[in-house]
Amino acid sequence: MKTILVTGGAGYIGSHTVLALGERGYDVVTLDNLSAGHRWAVRHGELVELDLLDREGLDRLFAARRFDAVVHFAAHIQVPESVERPLMYYVNNVGGTLNLLAAMVRHGPRYLIYSSSAAVYGIPEVIPVAEDAPLRPINPYGHTKAMVERILRDMARAGEIDYIALRYFNVAGADPGGRLGEGKEWAPHLITVAVRAAAGRRAGMTVFGTDYPTPDGTGVRDYIHVSDLAEAHVLALEHLLATGESGVFNCGYGRGYSVLEVLDAVREVTGVDFPVEYAGRRAGDPPALVADSRLIRERLGWQPRLDDLRLIVETAWRWELP
């Protein structure tokens, strides 16, 4: 049985991936400082409460345990916050990753699955955007992800690690079995915010930007179900362990929906009309981001099972209901 260290595994995407790895028969150790994650979300294996900025703690963990690979989620993730507090994002997202990589080089293992983001593309010239598009992030969060990707490329060329970076588009939904979902009260994701407004857990919600160059003026995004994304991590891990081939893959469905289309889907699924306010654009938000996901389907054999906007909303809605 292979032992996998999952950083940030008590968070939203990380916990779904820990669940998928555990169901696949892996021995999972979750590392999380619990600043945004939850103990209850770790459904398999052991939880180690530790911050990636604690270099001595990382050394002790890696010296005491033998890991076959690392799946790295731990990061700050809010684009507007990154614009307001860029130093915090560089220290945590880049500095924490450097500490993790240094511990891996000192102790092993050499295999890493990295949680990257479509934010590395900024405002793409071509939609859908493929992996070979220029990286032109427009916010500090995106810059941290692109910076770590560059570090990983350099280390792979030097023979220090092998890695796969998965560039997520907009992650949403909850475990179809009802075991897991978004646990953060401040969760920024549109579908989570909308279903919480429908459930009465919020007074309403705000749409930021109605003058984008899109069909209805609101931002367009590619929404991927969190369980399909967890499966992509398992496939990436198995590919890396079997071949040692580094690479980068988009994780999205290849179809975009506007904010207003998502809100219509939430109203349809929940049967609830909720208050919506409209405001100006937020700094750091691109007009549209849609994935060209052919590469991950062809190379890793990824076959999404939950590629339906209303199904994504339904799973999120069931999770939010009392």
Short summary of the structure?
The protein is of the alpha/beta class and 322 residues long.
Low-confidence stretches: none
The number of helices is 10
Percent of residues in helices:
25-40%
- The name CATH uses for the topology of the largest domain is Rossmann fold
Main beta sheet, described? 7 strands, parallel
Strand order of the largest sheet: 3-2-1-4-5-6-11
Number of domains: 2
> How far apart are the first and last residues' alpha carbons, in Å?
38 Å
How much beta, percentage-wise?
15-25%
Which CATH C-level class of the largest domain is it?
Answer: Alpha Beta
Fourth-tier CATH superfamily name of the largest domain = NAD(P)-binding Rossmann-like Domain
Give the overall shape: globular
Q: How would you name the oligomeric state of the polypeptide chains in this document?
A: single chain
The CATH architecture of the largest domain is: 3-Layer(aba) Sandwich
Q: Which structural class best describes the helix and strand composition?
A: alpha/beta
Give the SSE order as H and E letters: EHEEHEHHEHEEHEEEHEEHEEHH
> What's the mean pLDDT score?
97
Number of strands: 14
The gyration radius over C-alpha positions equals 19 Å
Keywords: Carbohydrate metabolism, Galactose metabolism, Isomerase, NAD
Catalytic activity: UDP-alpha-D-glucose = UDP-alpha-D-galactose
EC number: 5.1.3.2
Subunit structure: Homodimer.
